[in-house]
Amino acid sequence: MYLVHARMAAPGGGATALPSRARVRALVLGRARPEERVEHVAVHPHALPHPVLGFYVLADRLAEAEATARAVCRRVLRDCPEFDGWSLLEAEVPLMAPLLERELSLSGPGPRVLDGKVQGPFGPPGTPSGGSDQRRK
């Protein structure tokens, strides 16, 4: 499953509000076809700089999930009067690196480098085939 963020632009680049979350979700899911396997839609009307629709799509490939979200958005924009003047800016799987970096920065000191390898907060580097010096008693 992929989470695809579709960034939407209000008419004229203004501050026109989206319909209610429930209404947007119903409109979007109503335009999704069963074979597109859209499992859920999250609505983030106050995301900056543009509102975001989050599509949870079952797909074999990332590109397929992004194409599905774009296709559903195009149908919503074409068929739903509530979206007159709105446009789709992009529909992409969000990069998680900024989120991960933020979480790591909040978890304490940054990663250490040992023998040219980064050691993160999840434990020391090791080899799965190497023996452990920790034994059960």
Any overview of this molecule?
With 137 residues, the chain is an alpha+beta fold. The chain has three helices and six strands, in the order βαββαβαββ. The strands form two sheets. A four-stranded antiparallel β-sheet has the order 2-3-1-4, covered by helices on one side. A two-stranded antiparallel ribbon has the order 5-6. Strand 2 (38-44) and strand 3 (52-57) form a beta hairpin. Helix 1 packs across helix 2 (62-79). The mean pLDDT is 83.
Q: What structural category arises from helix and sheet content?
A: alpha+beta
Oligomeric composition of the shown chains: single chain
Radius of gyration: 21 Å
Mean pLDDT across residues: 83
**Biggest sheet strand line-up:** 2-3-1-4
List the total number of helices: 3
Question: Secondary-structure element sequence?
Answer: EHEEHEHEE
Task: Please give the largest β-sheet.
Answer: 4 strands, antiparallel
End-to-end span in angstroms?
42 Å
Q: Got a strand count?
A: 6
Low-confidence stretches: none
Percentage of β-strand residues: 15-25%
The percent range for helix content is 25-40%
Global outline: globular
Task: Name its key features.
137 residues, alpha+beta, four-stranded antiparallel sheet, two-stranded antiparallel ribbon, 3 helices, 28% helix, globular
Outline:
With 137 residues, the chain is α+β, with helices and mostly antiparallel strands. The chain contains 3 helices and 6 strands, in the order βαββαβαββ. A hairpin with a 7-residue loop joins β2 (38-44) and β3 (52-57).
